[in-house]
Amino acid sequence: MNTEDSWTNTVLAHARRPFEVWLSCDDCFDRSDAILEDVLDRDLPLPADLRAHLIGCPACRDEMETLAELIAADSGLDPAEGRERLDARIARP
Ligand SMILES: [Zn+2]
């Protein structure tokens, strides 16, 4: 009778797991400003946990790309260049 519910719960449990191992979306957001400064101003790589989160979480990746454009524009860079630098850091460590 409850097969559907338990199936849903199993799927949800699996879907949540990767984010428990790495970062939550809140953690990701809390660190985004400092990390984007590192990537855009100092050309440093993304921390491994944050990079893994961005690969697995399109919502945060979207948010980070928008922030990268804003921060790039603030530091006199081309916004598209800021987004590309972030994407490059997500694509390769
Ligand atoms: Zn997220």
Task: Draw up the topology in text.
Layout: H1 3-21, H2 25-41, H3 48-56, H4 58-74, H5 79-91
The structure holds zinc ion.
Zinc ion is lined by residues 25, 28, 53, 57, 59-60.
Structure commentary:
This protein is mostly helical and about 90 residues long. It has one domain (about 5-90). Helices cover about 80% and strands about 0% of the residues. Helix 2 packs parallel to helix 4 (about 60-75), helix 3 (about 50-55) crosses helix 4 (about 60-75) and helix 4 (about 60-75) crosses helix 5. It is elongated and about 55 Å long. The termini are far apart. The relative contact order is 0.14. Bound molecules: zinc ion.
Summarize the structure.
The chain has 93 residues and is mainly alpha-helical. 81% of the residues lie in helices and 0% in strands. The protein has one domain.
Radius of gyration (CA) equals 16 Å
Q: How many E strands?
A: 0
Number of contiguous helices: 5
Given as residue ranges, the uncertain stretches (5+ residues, pLDDT < 50) are none
- Helix/strand structural class: mainly alpha
Query: What is the 3D shape?
Result: elongated
Order of helices and strands: HHHHH
- Beta content comes to under 5%
